[in-house]
Amino acid sequence: MSAREFNFDGLVGPSHNYAGLSFGNVASFSNVKSASNPKLAALQGLAKMRALASRGFGQALLPPQDRPNFRLLRSIGFTGTDAEVLAKAAKESPVILACAYSASPMWTANAATVSPSADSADGRTHFTAANLNNKLHRAFEHEQSARALRAIFKDEKHFAVHDALPGTPAFGDEGAANHTRLCKDHGSSGVEMFVYGRTEFDASAPAPKKYPARQTLEASQAVARLHGLSAGRTVYIQQNPDVIDQGVFHNDVIAVGNANALFYHEQAFADEAGALDQLRRALAGVDADLSPIRVDTARVPVADAVASYLFNSQLLSKADGKMALVIPQECQEVASVAAYLDGLVAGGSAIDELIHFDLRQSMRNGGGPACLRLRVALTDAEAAAMHQGVVMTEALYHTLVAWVEKHYRDRLDPADLADPQLAIEVHNALEELSRILGLPGLYDF
What we know:
This protein has one domain (3-67, 102-436): Succinylarginine dihydrolase (L-arginine/glycine Amidinotransferase, Chain A, 5-stranded Propeller). It contains 15 helices and 15 strands. It has helices spanning 26-30, 38-54, 70-75, 82-92, 94-100, 141-152, 217-226, 241-244, 272-284, 302-308, 335-346, 360-363, 380-385, 394-407, 420-436, and strands at residues 3-10, 58-62, 112-115, 125-129, 159-162, 179-183, 190-196, 234-238, 255-258, 261-265, 291-295, 314-317, 323-328, 351-357, 373-379.
C-alpha cells in the first residue's frame, strides 16, 4: 500500500526563550539567559514549513503548548492568583519559573514515538507520548502532547495514541529523537530502530560518565510492545556512551535515516559493525538493502557535527527517487562540515540536494531541523482521516504569519518571565490559534 511521510513541525510559541535548562545539550547551555526573539523564531519555523510544503513534501504542524505551566508551579506550593504565583516563583526560584516557561515543546521530535500502520499488529498508526522524565522542564509536556495528538489523530479506526510510559528513570523515553524507521518505501513494512543510551537493569552495561543517557532500553522495548511491532523487524542499538559525553544528547544529533539510507557518524553507536549487521539482517526480511552513509571522524570531528547540527537534519525522499538533506545554515559555517557536504552531493550518494534554512533562534536553544519535526507516514485514507486544519497550505501560512505578527514579541529577556502580562499574551494568542486550526478545547486553560 502506498503511503506518504508527513513532517509535523512544532510551531514556536509566543514565550520562546533561552533558559539553558538542558544539561548535556551544549547549544542550549551555551546561550543561557540570552535575549530571544519569539517572533523571529516562529517566522523562521513557518518559512521552513512553507518551503517544504511548496516542494510537495507532506507538511503539517503541532501547536505550541500553553506557557507558563501553572500546573507545575501550583503543584510545588506556589499559591495565589496567577500574578502572585509568578511573582513568588520569580523571587524564590527563578530556575523553576524558567522551567514553567520552557520553550522545548517546539521540538516535536521529542513529542512521541510513531509507528506506521504497515508495521503494527493491528494495522493502525500508533503514537506513544514521550515522558521526557530526565528534565523537570520537559516532564510535564507529555500531557499536552497526548492531548494534541488525540485531537489531530482522533479516528480510532486508523490511529492509537498511547499515554506516556511510567515517569521513572527505568522508562526514560525521549520519543522519536531516538527512533528511526528504515524501509523500502513508506507504505511497506519496515524496520524500526530504537537507539538507547543505557540499560536500567544491567549495572554492568556501559553508560556515559559526564552527561545523562536519557533513553533506556527498557523504554524502547515498552514502546515496541505498545505498538505491536514484530520482533524480527525491531532493532535495539546502544548509542556510544562516549559520544553522549561529547554533547550528543539524542541519537538524532549523530544519525538520521530515511527509506533504506542511514546517514551516521563513525562514533554514533557503541558497536558500529554490530549495529549495521542487525539492520542489514532485519531489512533483508522486508526486501530492502541497507544503504549506509558513514561520516568519518577524520573528516568531521564530533565537536563540528554538534556545532553545526549536521545530523540533526531532515532526510527527505524526492519524487525522482533521490533524497534531499534539509540542514541549518550553520552547516555552511563550519569548514569541515561544508567541505564534507560539497563532496557528498557531488559523490553520487542517495543524497543529491542540500536545502538550507536559517533556524538560528531554534539552533541557539539546542534544536535543529530534525528536532523541530515529528515524522508520520500515512496512507491516503489515514491522511484524509487526520484533522486537516494543521496541514500546511499557502493560505494557512499567511494566516499564521499574521497571527504571529499580531501576538508575538520581538524581544524576550529572562526578567520578562516574571511579567504577568506575558502570560496573558500567551493565553490570548493560543485561544485564537485553536480557532484558526479548528481545534476547540485544545488547551486546558
